[in-house]
Amino acid sequence: MRSRVLGGASALLLLGACASPSASPSATAVLAKPPTGRIAVEGGKVWYQVCGKGTRTPLLVLHGGPGIPHDYLDNLAQLGDERPVIFYDQLGCGRSDRPDDPSLWTPERFSRELARVREVLGLKEVVLYGHSWGSILAVEYLTGAGGVDPAGVRGAILAGPALSMKRWVQDAQRLIDGLPAETAAAIREGEQTGATDSDAYQAATQVFYQHYVCRCDPWPQDVQDAMASMGEQVYLTLNGPSEFSVTGPIKSIDLTPRLSTLTLPLLFICGQYDEATPESTRYYASLAPKAQVVVVPDASHLANYDQPERYMSALRGWLDGNGL
In terms of Cα–Cα distance, which of 78, 57, 80 is closest to 153? Predict the structure, then answer.
């Protein structure tokens, strides 16, 4: 496992350079599809979008939340000059259907949904990009959750990873301690009393988000759009009321024992001030046999917007270095 802090374009040369890969048949297949559309999945239909005209291995983007649609990852479309970049809004949020059925919100069903998206779009070979909750979904899928066959995934990027919710909550509590005393107190009081809809609690959570989720001020429009069209039922059912108050069924998720079984190339990437902390990100990477780590300086959970040039350079460098 290799770990580094991204210091500039020169650091990327250390990843090595490969000969230009041949055109991917999956790129040809997905580029022949309509650039946007809807796919029937278990429980409804999901919206997708194909960006770019490059012919290298397609990148399939798994957004976070759960229930926060793809918009906040829109700038990953910059990679479309080399490969198709495919976004889809998972069921229950964004432009996809929003069935009123909490029984649908399970990692297993989302894993089958991912398999269905790949099938319909002809993505026999693909690189997965999973951010936050999307990192959980990626690992669940890669290890067969929901009875899926993940064959053909050539590599995976696990961004702002949340692979042990126990660690996630512990990290969040430590990060809260680093906030101004009155902010931390408001969060603690809301957690203890359950008054998470109070003005004081909501204001305090915004301070947390500004420190550890997205440090841009104001937040980019794409990020605001994602928050405005989130699927609250999905988020509240699976996660709970906030990033650091995890009361839903994902609170028991610990995927760390599965990481040693993943023999494909993995990139773990996070921000210096990420709520998915560099310490936890490095720990996850240490458990996987073919993992590399990038920590993006002066960035938080949405490092793709906090430091977009560094972030995209890191992704390109890893993809190039692995011939993807």
Answer: 57
